Description:
single chain; BirA Bifunctional Protein, domain 2; eight-stranded mixed sheet; elongated; RNA-binding
Amino acid sequence: MKREFIKSILNGPVEEREVRVAGWVRTRRDSKGGFSFIELNDGSCFASLQIIADATLANYESEISRLFPGSSIVVTGKVVASQGGGQSVEVQAVSVKVLGFCEPTDYPLQKQRVSFERLREVAHLRARTNTFGAVTRVRHALAMATHKFFDDLGFYYINTPIITASDCEGAGEMFQVTTLELGKKPDYEKDFFRQKTGLTVSGQLAAECFACSLGNVYTFGPTFRAENSNTRRHLAEFWMVEPEMAFADLADDADMAEDYLRYLFNYVLENCMEDLEFFNKRIDTTLLASLRKLAGSEFKRITYTEAIAILEQATVSFEYPVKWGADLQSEHERYLTEVKFECPVTVTDYPKGIKSFYMRLNEDDKTVAAMDVLLPHVGEIIGGSQREERLDVLSARIEEAGLSCDDYWWYRDLRKFGSVPHAGFGLGFERIVQFCTGMQNIRDVIAFPRTPGNAEF
RNA sequence: UCCGGCGUAGCUCAAUGGUAGAGUAGGUGACUGUUAAUCACUUGGUUGUUGGUUCGAGCCCAACCGCCGGAGCCA
Length: 457
């Protein structure tokens, strides 16, 4: 008999039929009435399936009575209507085959709550918990939604290099990739790639090459930052979604960013309700309400200059001074999204001095066509811009930034040969998973988090 | 990296400078279509590490290690 997912049994009709299921025991409750209740979870959905294991089963005393949380079993039996109140169907076992026992004295997971901090120390097992199962399913849904959204709009999914010699300036410190011996003065001529290389901090420059040929493209891959950031919003290895559109300006970019975010919120509401209800109950009681609100609402869009004016008029006092030319601080972003507008805010046209060289210089010669999408409680979820398509302006900006035009020869070639206006953005995937689950710490929305001092597992 | 907090039983947490406690998990027994099952009894400790103050340190001091929160950097 073919194994069936618990999800299909729980969602299927209540009718007597033979099934075969396999999974891991969540709990076992014995009844001296002559049977045991086994909660079985196979990851196919949030809920577990109740198995009724009768004491008349041949291995009841020898094996079933030794089934503790974490044990793996295969059950064949009959789907029947449940006599109990907690579930509509259950499986009356005909046989329970034990694949692997799990000793409770050694097993780090408990039936009771285990802290997320503790679970990070046993990250190889934490996927077996309710929370991480739910996070994993929502994360998967968001990834699928991303591909579906861009595919529907005619974007091509491209894969840009992980190892690269180009430092996407302003993005952060790079991890070095080398085969040279440690401790010696490096001679990069003798290194594997005959030049200094590192792990990518952004696929943007490569994506631009393809956008300037195929029109609309996006990357969705791992990104690495060797910053010593210790916050609940940063990882050294994270996943980034980076769309890039030809023949598009900043307004097109901001429109697409908002459409994409709304699409994601609607997608998880339509596909992950069981998991979202768990998060709403146990992690963040405002989650469902805010997802529903955002899924249908317009975002507020203001320029940086307008944002500064609003902040200057604010009655609250800020730790950092509000001054045109200085970057917005976390407290300023929070004021805009959580106090002033109480919704996502897209801020555009930042001063050129605080943004990267590749962002298109505006007519005022003081600002660039940049945008950040700010979410309440999460902060910056998206950073993007219209790219500078004028070769002379780009070259001047590279020099201004203290960089070498030679190093960016191929990037500048895009402007030399058939240059077109184009724009794009980067979205931190874990941050959107955080937002859609209500999880406080970004380390708990990725399988095996990499942070300063931590790369176990 | 900076600021602040925390580190005690397998886990979650208590404990005026004066005998180390509870819940939960585990064990034994009772009871039961249970569902965080319930009830009784019970096992379980180098109080993060090192040094210091004190008659006496889980508690006070110092350094270090680890974790958490905030800030910075960013997505």
